[in-house]
């Protein structure tokens, strides 16, 4: 891009992109190959993949179906890649992202093994000065966060961890060489999507597995299976329609969304529907493909929650264990809904014990294991499946300073504020891909990522066409968007539940419902309208 100012030196590059997962790779591609800009990417890992680079724990796999949990921006790419199954495992998704990096020659624009530590906006130059842990300092016109929503691992501050004589791991920072649990006494803390995926394979290998559960979850069977040649031919022939369906939907999934309330049908009809979805379909279709009011009407939600509790009791032999595994104090779907392969069945194994932390909370980690309020459990290995400082943690690890030196950590001390989830007032030329205040984690992520990447690159192109050097959300637009995000969330059952959507999993984090629950399709329309009105709510300028 040309710098129109006679005095200000041009920045070193047009854009810096932080992170090389789904979002960073596409952002680099888009800016470099479509807009022809100079781009530097930085990635802490030694290769691309983001989430799929770090989360290598046993059982890690995608919860969205492979044929739509993938990029749509290149028809050649989607025609040449064939996934093995409905829900591919982490190594296959990592192979895909490496393939994308190679196919589009993206590695040469990305510095791996490099963490961005700080970024400061230079007000008099309309650019960012970016620092890395390797000591590099460079300037860029646009600073783009592709750090992901679930990247800052949360190891809870349980006293005594430093004295533990065994091995411990967080699932989101898993050793590349893998972990052999053979003959080990393993303690797994956490029963979110990750703990639920990891429990069956760890139990199959370990001498004994203790699952430490604070909050039970409603898990739906994945019904994973290989996808056949003819199925793939059909998918590839209809990719256009599939992607269109995703874009026109609430959650970014190509499922027909029911317009019927769970309370508008007879109990027999409802039961038959749940049973069919449970035993034949599985996965997110259970939530998105049945009735339209699980997330807004408690009585409707009760019908499905009760069905799942019944299923847990049908699967788990020990009634007391089944009771402990059955959630009763929050509605189904208001925590991120997990899907599983043989999760509940695993509690029928003789080498698996469920520990209810609500009855007997963790007190400390000891040199030999873990102590709850009633006893000590001797363990060789502790697995923390304790989640992430979601949606804000990975961005706030970077010391980001906007106009007048304002720090993003200070600005977000009481919860994140954004305009459209993509920009922050006081932080010009900073874009956040799938930031808080956008549909992000409530949707099929690659779709949400593509929409943001394309919107951001269109915005940058718009500035370039007009010789402008600065775009900044107004405080007014940001405040109104924040109110809207809260208003739509308050019309649902989401905000009352303790979940990472509201930051409840991180001690001391402000409780704010972070994702935008208004739906992907309406959100996309809103973003397009903002752009069509000359980026309404933003100030565009040049120097
Ligand atoms: P989640 O969904 O945040 O789950 C973390 C689990 O760890 C959850 O069961 C927590 O219980 C539990 N946890 C967290 N801190 C503690 C402490 N201090 N003691 C005991 N138990 C604790 O993370 P996941 O990695 O499973 O999933 C993250 C996302 O990745 C997932 O939603 C998908 O989008 C992919 P809690 O429920 O807070 O009581």
Characterise this structure:
By secondary structure, the protein is an alpha/beta fold. It has 17 helices and 20 strands. The strands form five sheets. Strands 1, 2, 3, 4, 5, 6, 17 and 18 form an eight-stranded mixed β-sheet that branches. Strands 7-16-8-9-12 form a five-stranded parallel β-sheet. It has a three-stranded antiparallel β-sheet with strand order 13-14-15, with no helix packed on it. Helix 1 runs parallel beside helix 15 and helix 15 packs parallel to helix 17. The longest helix has 21 residues, at 445-465. The mean pLDDT is 96. The structure holds ligand NA7. Ligand NA7 binds at residues 150, 156, 189-195, 214-215, 336, 357, 362, 385-388, 500, 505.
Main sheet specs: 8 strands, mixed
State the total count of DSSP E strands: 20
| Overall morphology | globular
* Alpha-beta classification: alpha/beta
Unreliable parts: none
Bound small molecules, which ones? ligand NA7
Number of continuous helical runs: 17
The share of residues in helices is 25-40%
Overall residue-averaged pLDDT value: 96
N-to-C span:
13 Å
Strand content: 15-25%
| Rg, nearest Å | 24 Å
Secondary-structure map with pairings?
Elements: E1 13-18, H1 22-34, E2 39-42, H2 51-54, H3 75-80, H4 90-103, E3 110-111, E4 116-122, E5 127-132, E6 137-145, E7 167-170, E8 185-189, H5 193-205, E9 208-213, E10 220-221, H6 229-237, H7 239-247, H8 267-281, H9 285-288, H10 298-315, H11 319-325, E11 339-340, H12 343-346, E12 352-356, E13 362-366, E14 369-372, E15 376-378, E16 381-384, H13 393-396, E17 399-401, H14 408-411, E18 430-432, H15 445-465, E19 470-473, H16 475-490, H17 520-532, E20 538-541
Parallel strand pairs: 1-2, 1-6, 2-3, 4-17, 6-18, 7-16, 8-9, 8-16, 9-12, 10-11
Antiparallel strand pairs: 4-5, 5-6, 13-14, 14-15, 19-20
The structure holds ligand NA7.
């Amino acid at each position: 891009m040309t710098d129109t100012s006679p005095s200000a030196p041009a920045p070193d590059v047009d854009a810096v992109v932080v992170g090389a997962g789904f979002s960073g790779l596409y952002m680099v591609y888009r800016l470099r190959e479509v807009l022809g800009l100079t781009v530097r990417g930085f990635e802490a890992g030694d290769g691309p993949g983001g989430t799929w680079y770090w989360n290598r724990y046993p059982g890690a796999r995608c919860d969205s179906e492979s044929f739509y949990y993938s990029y749509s921006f290149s028809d050649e790419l989607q025609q040449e890649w064939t996934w093995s199954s409905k829900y591919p495992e982490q190594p296959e998704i990592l192979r895909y992202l490496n393939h994308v990096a190679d196919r589009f020659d993206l590695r040469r624009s990305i510095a791996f093994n490099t963490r961005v530590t700080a970024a400061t906006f230079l007000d008099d130059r309309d650019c960012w000065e970016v620092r890395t842990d390797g000591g590099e300092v460079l300037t860029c016109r646009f600073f783009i966060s592709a750090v992901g929503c679930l990247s800052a691992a949360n190891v809870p501050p349980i006293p005594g961890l430093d004295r533990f004589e065994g091995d411990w791991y967080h699932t989101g920072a898993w050793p590349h060489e893998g972990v052999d649990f053979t003959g080990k006494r393993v303690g797994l803390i956490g029963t979110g999507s990750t703990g639920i995926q990891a429990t069956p394979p760890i139990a199959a290998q370990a001498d004994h597995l203790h699952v430490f559960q604070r909050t039970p979850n409603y898990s739906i069977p994945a019904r994973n299976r290989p996808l056949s040649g003819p199925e793939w031919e059909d998918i590839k022939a209809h990719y256009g329609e599939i992607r269109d369906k995703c874009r026109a939907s609430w959650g970014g999934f190509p499922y027909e969304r029911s317009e019927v309330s769970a309370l508008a049908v007879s109990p027999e009809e409802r039961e038959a529907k749940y049973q069919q979805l449970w035993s034949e379909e599985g996965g997110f279709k259970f939530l998105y493909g049945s009735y339209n009011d699980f997330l807004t009407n408690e009585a409707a939600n009760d019908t499905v929650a009760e069905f799942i509790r019944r299923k847990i009791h049908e699967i788990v032999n020990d009634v007391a264990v089944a009771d402990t595994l059955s959630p009763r104090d929050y509605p189904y779907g208001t925590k991120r809904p997990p899907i599983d392969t043989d999760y509940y069945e695993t509690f029928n194994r003789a080498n698996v014990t469920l520990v209810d932390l609500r009855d007997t909370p963790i007190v400390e980690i000891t040199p030999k294991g873990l102590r709850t309020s009633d006893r000590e459990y001797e363990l060789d290995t502790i697995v923390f499946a304790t989640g992430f400082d979601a949606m804000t943690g990975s961005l706030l690890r970077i010391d980001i300073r906007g106009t007048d030196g304002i720090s993003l950590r200070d600005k977000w001390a009481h919860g994140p504020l954004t305009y459209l989830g993509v920009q922050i007032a006081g932080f010009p030329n900073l874009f956040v891909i799938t930031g808080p205040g956008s549909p992000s984690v409530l949707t099929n992520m690659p779709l949400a990522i593509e929409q943001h990447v394309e919107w951001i690159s269109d915005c940058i192109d718009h500035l370039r066409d007009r010789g402008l050097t600065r775009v900044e959300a107004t405080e007014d637009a940001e405040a109104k968007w924040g109110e809207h995000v809260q208003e739509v969330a308050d019309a649902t059952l989401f905000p009352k539940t303790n979940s990472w959507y509201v930051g409840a999993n991180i001690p001391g984090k402000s409780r704010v419902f972070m994702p935008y629950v208004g739906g992907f399709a309406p959100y996309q329309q809103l973003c397009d309208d903002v752009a069509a009105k000359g980026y309404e709510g933003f100030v565009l300028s040049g120097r």
